[in-house]
Amino acid sequence: AQSVTQPDIHITVSEGASLELRCNYSYGATPYLFWYVQSPGQGLQLLLKYFSGDTLVQGIKGFEAEFKRSQSSFNLRKPSVHWSDAAEYFCAVGEEKGAQKLVFGQGTRLTINP
Amino acid sequence: DSGVTQTPKHLITATGQRVTLRCSPRSGDLSVYWYQQSLDQGLQFLIQYYNGEERAKGNILERFSAQQFPDLHSELNLSSLELGDSALYFCASSVEGLRTDTQYFGPGTRLTVL
CA-to-CA distance for B74 and B31, rounded, in angstroms? Predict the structure, then answer.
């Protein structure tokens, strides 16, 4: 069965610093990968997704992610964080067969220091 | 605003009771998904409907049931509630329920069972 691991439960960075959130997946074939963000009291918003093609994916709000098959990773990056980026970030993989259900990681909570 | 609406926002009830959560998908979306977010289990897929038919089932308890109506709105029914059912319940929708579809999430219904 597919699984997603986000090794970092909580990360704190300073405003203006670069950010990398880690995501490792377990999957048999080519995965469908997603990053979602959840702000307090809000639903989940899609940042970006990868299905195939270019392994560097650009998303909204200045985020990007790189798919590395050899490392089974799909890390999320941002060159310079803003205070408004403070939120919980979820990596997810789409189910291999049948209908589309998402398997989520446990999430990484991002805190921004002023 | 994702275009997915969920009511109510908050629900407080007692053990043993039954509640109904409602979801209206984005205009034009045929598929609806239900997810449960709890502290111990994280974000878990419960069930998916496509155009009124059940398409996929996840870790949904037998005490829980769902349906999608002809107008495409969906309801999640939770019965014989237990303390452990306290969680945030998300509805998401997508155009066709395919693996390549983006799932758009609603703001969630927070259920508290006392």
Answer: 10
